[in-house]
């Protein structure tokens, strides 16, 4: 029984961290300026369709594409 509780707690924590990263990435994209509006729209679509992977990719690649 305690194992199941720890398992659910772990998944809940993982889900919460994923949600926080996803929201942060979307807000950062929306508030930032990019070289073109198309780049911004592409990042929004990628992050919405692939929440965890898209957020991580934005963190690694997309933040370097911002202006200013």
How does the major sheet shape up? 2 strands, antiparallel
For the terminal residues, how far apart are their CA atoms? 52 Å
Strand order of the largest sheet: 1-2
Number of strands: 2
The protein's oligomeric status is single chain
The share of residues in extended strands comes to 5-15%
Total of helices: 3
Estimated radius of gyration: 15 Å
pLDDT below 50 for ≥5 consecutive residues: which ranges? none
Tally the structural domains. 1
Q: Structural class per helix/strand content?
A: mainly alpha
Order of helices and strands: HEHHE
Helix content: over 70%
User: What's the rounded overall pLDDT mean?
Assistant: 90
Net shape:
elongated
What does this structure look like?
It is a single chain. The protein has one domain (18-67). A two-stranded antiparallel sheet has the order 1-2. The chain contains 3 helices and 2 strands. It has helices at 2-31, 37-49, 51-60, and strands at residues 33-34, 66-67.
Keywords:
68 residues, mainly alpha, two-stranded antiparallel sheet, 3 helices, 2 strands, elongated
Present the secondary structure layout.
Blueprint: H1 2-31, E1 33-34, H2 37-49, H3 51-60, E2 66-67
Antiparallel strand pairs: 1-2
What's a concise summary of this model?
With 68 residues, the protein is mainly alpha-helical. Helix content is 78%, strand content 6%.
């Amino acid at each position: 029984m305690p194992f199941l509780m720890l398992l659910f707690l772990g998944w809940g924590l993982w889900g919460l961290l994923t949600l926080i990263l996803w929201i942060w990435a979307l807000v950062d994209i929306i508030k930032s300026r990019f070289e073109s509006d198309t780049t911004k729209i592409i990042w929004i679509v990628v992050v919405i369709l692939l929440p965890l992977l898209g957020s991580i990719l934005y963190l690694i690649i997309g933040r370097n594409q911002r202006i200013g």
